[in-house]
Design a protein that fits this description.
This protein is mostly beta strands and about 190 residues long. Helices cover about 10% and strands about 50% of the residues. The strands form four sheets. The protein has a five-stranded mixed β-sheet with strand order 2-9-8-4-5, with no helix packed on it. Strands 11-18-17-13-14 form a five-stranded mixed β-sheet, with no helix packed on it. β15 and β16 form a beta hairpin. The protein starts with 7 loop residues before the first helix and ends with a strand.
Length: about 190
């Protein structure tokens, strides 16, 4: 009843179906990240990402620093200019284009910064809130010192650290160190 053509007819049909399916897919190129510069900075630092297959319309590229969304300033098919967002932490940079995500092979290091602390004076045991950027959300990854004397950190977010003035601290600057990167307050904490 049916004439046998062997395996050639089904293979030809499969090839035809694949050609039809793939012809409607458009650009199948995936974005890649080959480098970024600088490799570290504080929130607000301008970063240039170099790679391939980025969208030439800036708004069509979604960039994040270790999961924190950033604003794309400009883009070409091989370069994106963006800014480190407030709240970013050390980790990879990712670029999403057409629902496809490329992730850097190395981490961008966020350097912490201290913008303020309250209160500005107190005795040993006083609770102090330090505000800034680039802090680690894991409390034990933040090292806080009052004029060189290490303090205990009780809680932290990427923009705030709560600590207490350590016994033996003297009037001086507050230092926060995260991943080997340090920020120093521009003003002194006064120990009463």
């Amino acid at each position: 009843m049916f004439k046998s053509y062997g395996y050639r007819q089904p293979l030809a049909l499969v090839a035809l179906l694949l050609q039809i399916i793939l012809s409607g897919c458009g650009n199948t190129s995936l974005a890649t990240i080959s480098s970024f510069s600088p490799t570290s900075g504080t929130a607000g630092t301008t970063v240039t990402i170099v790679g391939t297959d980025f969208d030439t319309t800036a708004a069509n590229n979604a960039v994040s620093f270790n999961g924190t969304s950033a604003v794309v300033t400009s883009s070409t098919s091989t370069e994106i200019v963006t800014t480190v967002p407030s709240g970013a932490t050390t980790g990879p940079i990712s670029v999403t284009v057409n629902s496809q995500t490329a992730t850097s092979s190395s981490n961008f290091t966020v350097i912490p910064s201290i913008t303020s602390f309250t209160p500005t004076s107190g005795t040993a045991g006083t609770t102090v809130t330090i505000t800034g950027t680039g802090f680690d959300t894991t409390t034990t990854n933040n090292i806080v010192k009052f004029n060189g004397t290490t303090a205990v950190v009780t809680s932290s977010t990427s923009t705030s650290i709560v600590t207490t003035v350590p016994s033996g601290a003297a009037t001086g600057q507050i230092t926060v160190t995260v991943n080997g990167q340090s920020a120093i307050s521009s003003t002194n904490f006064t120990v009463n």
